Queue: 3 jobs
Job 1
Amino acid sequence: MRGLIKGDNVFVPTAVLRVAVRNDIDVAALLVTERGRVRGDADIVFDGAPVHPSGAVRLSDGGDGGEDGTVWVDADLTGVEQEISRVLVVASTEGGALRDVRDLSVRVLGPDGTTVVGYEVTEAGGETAMVLAELYRRAGGWKFRAVGQGYLDGLVGLAADHGVDVAEEAAEAPPEDSPAEAEAAEAETRTPEAPQVPVPAQAPVPTPLPAPAKLQVPSRTPDPVPYAYPPVAQGPSGWTFGAVFEPRTLSGPGNAVLDVEDLPPGPVMVELTLKTDGYTGVWTLGPENKEMDLLVNSTEQDFRGRLLHVVPETGRLRMKLRADGPWQARVLPLAAAQLLTEETMESWGPNVLLHTGGPTDVAFHYRGSSNFIVDSYDLAGHDDPTTLPDSLRPYINQIGRRRESLSLPEGPVLVHLLRAAGPWRARLKQPSAATAWLRRARR
């Protein structure tokens, strides 16, 4: 074996070579043109896309699950496309610097399994990403170079140097409203709340209440409500979190206490529709009828939405409703949550949505004039169906018409629109290979 130092190069066979990188580090390969840039996301080979479309470059753990800390880049130099002049072998860390990686090295094995050339990386410092080595065309054949070029700004800097386009936000943004849509959105939000400031998701700013009115016990027989909540698809078949039960329906003409007994303890949704030109407020009530969490604080016309609430161990749900008009409420299991997909979902008001796929982003287009607050709950591994885990960070907390995105881990995840007194759109964004590769650098 010929050992190289940084900057050295040597010819290698134009054959199927195996490049071994160790020790316990994230590895990728970039196929670049003569200009030193990838042609697109497909030229990034990493653990999320381990095979190049040409089949010439593959990433593997060598068949042993990577237990010895080695990652293999298999390169069939006879099959590399003519447009590609170099295959870069890239390493990065999720935490710490490359100088902390022990025995970081690269070696190339020929078709017979013998080592052709090797490179012990001894020059690493505070960088978190590095082009370790490259296979490149020269004089009708291929050479191997020990590169050792590190990046203090990590994969982001390395990607920028090699033409990786990660500016997907503009391309992924929903189209702007047409004049008719904008006019309709303004009409829907023509009764704005007083100016507000962003507030923590668990501590919204209350609006002064109207003069107290005598609370009324809701009837068990639903009265007609002028606005019917749009029909929504049920959750994915077979998915449940918490108990599944028949919806409970209440209705009334105005201010009321919502009181539902014999519910299974745990998170539920309360779907509320209201015909009003005035104020709508909803609070949870504690054991002594004390107002607890403020769930709705709106002056929007004809309020509707789905609220997230956790039923206590007593199985009794109690809420205080301020309603200047007839209303209807339905208590629903979480299994009835709307499923997020890559198709655009259009709705109004607070809601509870479900994500069941892999890590991704959800894009929102909010067209209201008041607070827009969205948080989420990772249910993976959460085994207690009577509680919710702590909400994830970061979350969205903005005011007025916005386009925002929220990163989601692998599902199941509940996406909770806590404040959204206005129309909105939502859809999952399919992350590009570049985005998926770089996401680890942003953790």
Job 2
Amino acid sequence: MSTAFLYAAARTPFGRFGGALAGVRPDDLAAGALNGIMARVPGLDPALIGEVVLGNANGAGEDNRNVARMAVLLAGLPVSVPGATVNRLCGSSLDAAMIASRSVECGDAEIVVAGGVESMSRAPWVLPKPSRAYPAGDMTAVSTTLGWRLVNERMPAEWTVSLGECNEQLADRFQIGRERQDEFAARSHQLAHKAWESGFYDDLVVSVPAVELSQDEGIRPGSTAQSLAGLKPSFRKAGTITAGNASPLSDGASALLVGSEAAAGRIGADPLARVAGRGVHALSPQDFGFAPVEAAKKALARAGIGWSDVAAVELNEAFAVQLLACVDAWKVDPDIVNTKGGAIALGHPLGASGARVLATLAYRLRESGDRWGVAAICIGVGQALAVVLENVTSGSESR
């Protein structure tokens, strides 16, 4: 078996729902991320890419018909480069990275591009086909932007409640109050702003042609727990979850270059990190926010390390409450979690977030020189994924 390494990463800025990227098709966003990856490794012959695997959660509009293959063609890569699209909802692009790493490890390919894309602004309304011809009544258009739609009536009602209600239940279960959630959300905005100001994201983010957006659009650096406390609950009249302590609807794309150790010469770059462990976990759909707890434990076991070895954690901030529940269960220092901000501030374009989380982790490890990190993401309908990275850049082994 070979070993899979992360060599490069690129993503677009993440745009707000209806914001600067709303006019850009998702296949064009994905093509931009692919072009960003190729710009990182100008010595790589694109014909050597064995596969492009992209995640996409909706796939009901302009991202239909295998958006990965469409992005390959739109990016100007050779027509000989295959493309496959994977859907594991919010975890889609982290799943794509895991698939890419397995492909490298088993020898099916030496160089794979993974990533994902979502335009939640452009997700269409859909009309179901009628059960019989010529119905006389009205039909309702269903939004494909987020959450359950066209639900099978055989599904138990407790499984199909809204994502927000699922996390209100999590708040009740672990007694995580509104104040703590708002404090964490404010921290996300402040750290994201600080990371942009320090230049951390300069080498990760690529511009979108014809769009004036140089940074993630949703960051509000002036956010405080006090200012967020004024927002009304979104899912329960007396609930704890608001638009301020949950991730927003977003647009964006991300990409990663995964390859074998032997491919370094053809890529023309040294690797950033080794994919050391992977984990997947599933539980009851309404408990999806807590699923990363076991997914990360599995990834750590496969890497042969424990939480005491981990110096950096990137956990997607779908909701502040679910992140806090997971961090509490892991018993890790909150100060090592999402130190460059997270999805509450940066945005959460569903199909792109997993690769964003993994790339941020690799760059954090390179910056700090620490050896081990964990990237994880919760997934609607009761799943989660996690990946352990080992920093292989200079100076990492001593830490």
Job 3
Amino acid sequence: MNAPAHVATFSCPEFLAMERTIIDDFVDCTRECCEEAETCVKALNHEGGADYIHRLFRSLHSLKGNCQMVGLAPFTGLLHRIEEIFARVRSRPESYFSELGEFLLIATDEVEDLLTELINTGQANDKRRQKLYDICDALQKNSGDQLDPQQFKDAITALGGKLADKGSAAKSPKIHLELPADMELMQKLSLQIDNLSIYRKNRSDQVVQLMESLNEALGFPLDTEQLKAASLMHDVGMSFIPHNIFNKEGVLSKEELRFIQEHVVTGSQLLLRFGGWNDAARMVLDHHEKFDGSGYPNGLAGEQIHPGGRMLAIIDTFCSVTTERSDRSYKKSLLSAISEINANIHIQFDPVMVTAFNDVVRKMMMKQ
């Protein structure tokens, strides 16, 4: 019996040893770069335009830079070769042809597949990586002063791909004008704000679940749909804040603080525009009010604050304390978080609701 052929593999220990949140963030960034590349290629095949050439080059450069940042050396050289090929078109946008774009998409698909294999198994097929590198190297060295479409056709065939039908490639995808259900759109918006920072991964889902648990512990005083809408939309207004403020570390100026505080108004107004979500809008507007009246935007106190706003204030603080943040490299324990909340009853939080939330956290701790 013949022994199975040995398959050469490679690994990247430095990358694989990183925290999972960093790896997940890298995967998200890689996916965004590849999606941007696909968007640009489709646009170039349809109408051309130097702007898409530059966007495409930036997405390739970002992908290479991200790999270099996290220690993925086997991919850095490969992506540099791909980038070098496309750099020629960057200086002469009129020389772009569809076979080049098709090859680029197949090449980035190969890179994505190898990265997925590396993350899932700890190693990836080096023969496959080397084959792609050799093809890119040959294209770079043999194309002379002008890129040759036939060479790229041959390269696509060598990689096992096939050219997209030019008739269909020339047509831009149809986008139907349709309005999704309110809750579906709210979930998409909440995901958008969560994706703006690595410190917000799955934050909206966590808030929804904790709000449901607290509502149950209080005897269901609030409508579950209104509560879910407020949970999803309470921080969506943050996505309208300039990135330099949203991601700023350290003390905010008065003007920057005003921008931050505006998010409750934006979120509540969006809910009012949806129609039928008045309760949810009030919860969002009130969730940074404090029990002693020192909060914003209206300085409400005690029972003046919507019950859902008082609940959201507790949950929002709890999620912030138990999540790693840019200003600290660790996250506090459940016990530490609930202790901090209990220390601020009558000042920041409703004492009755905090008592109910203590039971929610106690059950969480027992499960863990």
